[in-house]
Amino acid sequence: MRLDLGRPASLSRSGYALLLSSVITSALGLVYWFLAARLIAADELGRGAALVSAMVLVTSLATAGLKRGLMLFVAMVGPGARRFVVHVYAAGLLITLAFGAVFVAGFAGLSRELDLVNHGWVGPTVFLLSTLVWAVFVLQDAVLIGSRRSTLVPVSNAAFSVAKIVVLLSLLAFVDQDLGVLLSWVLPALATGVVVNWWLARRGLERDDRPHAIDPPTLGQVARFTGAEYVAALSWLSAVYLTPLLVLARAGATSNAHFYLAFQIAYALFLVSSNISDALVADAAEVASSGTALAAKVRKASRQIALVLVPGAALAVVAAPWVMAAFGNGYRAEGTIVLRLLAIAAVPNAITTVMVAIAHVRRRMWLVMVVEATMAALTLVLSWLLLGHHGVAGVAWAWLIAQCATALLATVLTVQAEAPSRRELRLRLVGWASSGRGALARVRCERHVPRWLAQLPAGAVPPGPRRLLACQHDLAVVQVGSSADAVVVRLAVGAQGRAVIRAHVD
Asked: For 473, left (φ over 0), alpha (ψ -120 to 50), or beta?
């Protein structure tokens, strides 16, 4: 893929750029977790993975309503994009700091389990700073997508993923292993964030590529969208990031390590539909009022998702035993079934993701909230019920059942919301009836024109080819003769046609 920083990316280029980002991140992430599993004891890795999950959970909860808002509105605010982004960043950092403080102070038992408060102020400080760095790292991708600079996303994420491996290998000899896992995420995110946001401030946001027909969003529109999006994203993130903490609390650190690595591998499949739908939201916002244009973009995005997701899920199901065996026998025993079930769950999730993207473009935030809340409730409740009897495999079954049910719900709600109103349906029926009547009249004319022309007086029309130009109800228009001496004959088929011709003659 050719990198072009000067030209905004189309839906195809954005979608494939984000797909490339997912592939790179997933492949390098697999290398990262392979090395971590080989170098770190399972219980330490389980705590380190839970610490990363806690950081990402806090950050995601704080920025949940801001990411889609950046994707949707950055291209619409025009010359004010830089100020808009700064304001969103500031809001995101303040909310992240508040959520991080609540997590450290309000969940004392979990904080002690994660070794956050066992060494005075150092642990909480490192954790809070980590959440702030990760918040900027999360939001910058949304800015790149919203400003049509999606081709930079795989570049920045590849740099982060490589640096994450290097930092992990460098830190294990100097810091505690669980803290080393956390810092191996935070330090590369800090370096990448500095570079990307410096470029955005200097060049990436300086152009105004939005169509002039689009009015910049008002503060009220942004607030309403962000509030509803926050509720919806909160539901999804709760399912994603509370699940490892649930496994840690009920099954222990070792089982959480087995589950977490399988989940991280399978989550790459979930990112396929998520990334392409992000590009769809950013690209289709300009055609939200045009059902035909939006439908074409949805079909295009759906094809992109299917071409990658279906073969990827099939490969994960087949290769799961060998993939998990690479981490160790314990990972293969518990992680194989988890990876298989989660890979299958990514397919119905893709349906839900596309339906939710349509709702975002249409600003039907009620649909987004209902779908995401249903998914989160089903996932967490079923995980709690099945974990005790079936272990981590029960959590994977909970994900699969929840995703299938949510996909069905999202499809039904979208079909109902997109269904035409009674007035639109009546107009369509009238149009179809008129078209059908016109087609029947033309067939009738084609069949009877030779007989009608034969009834004209001899010499009234020149000899030669005959071509039906038009046929409306009781009036036919025919061209007769060669191009040199052709004449146009209007024939009255019925009473209405004769009345029209007499009116023209008069």
From this structure: left
Q: How far apart are CA 6 and CA 430, in angstroms?
A: 48
Q: In terms of Cα–Cα distance, which of 387, 399, 392 is closest to 345?
A: 399
> Cβ distance 251 to 391 under 8 Å?
yes
Q: Which helix (H) or strand (E) holds 406?
A: helix 392-418
Considering just the CA atoms, what is the radius of gyration of the chain in Å? Answer: 31
- The DSSP symbol for 79 reads G
406 with 371: CB under 8 angstroms? yes
* 186 closest CA partner among 133, 136, 150: 133
Query: Pairing between strand 466-472 and 475-480?
Result: antiparallel
Structure tokens at 429: 């029926």
Q: Which residue has the tokens 């997912």?
A: 22
Across 10-98, the runs of DSSP E, i.e. the strands, are: none
Residue 417's CB: how many other CB atoms inside 10 A? 14
DSSP lists the bridge partners of residue 489 as 478
Structure tokens at 277: 């739908």
Phi, psi dihedral angles at 466 (to 5 degrees):
-125, 135
Q: Which two tokens stand for residue 307?
A: 């071409």
Number of CB atoms found within 10 A of residue 394's CB: 21
Shortest CA distance to 67 belongs to which of 245, 287, 274, 205? Answer: 274
Q: What is the DSSP string of 329-350?
A: HHHHHHHHHHHHHHHHHHHHHH
pTM of the predicted structure, to 2 decimals: 0.59
Answer for the pair 338, 392: CB distance below 8 angstroms, yes or no: yes
462-493 pLDDT tens trace: 777 777 777 766 777 888 877 777 888 877 77
Instruction: Give the residue from 349, 348, 319 showing the smallest Cα distance to 336.
Output: 319
Comparing CA positions, the residue from 319, 316, 371 lying closest to residue 346 is 316
Q: Which of 358, 237, 312 is nearest to 19 (CA)?
A: 312
DSSP class of residue 209 equals -
Instruction: Give yes or no for a contact between 297 and 287, defined as CB atoms under 8 angstroms apart.
Output: yes
Residue with tokens 């034969």: 454
SS3 490: strand
> What pLDDT, in 10s, does the model give residues 432-460?
766 777 777 777 777 777 777 777 777 77
Q: Token pair for residue 62?
A: 């704080």
Element (H, E) at 112: helix 108-113
Helix (H) or strand (E) holding 471: strand 466-472
Tokens encoding 352: 């839900």
The alpha carbon torsion through 127, 102, 260, 25 (nearest 10 deg) reads: -60
> In angstroms, what CA-CA distances link 140 with 11, 129, 156, 224, 403?
19, 17, 10, 22, 28
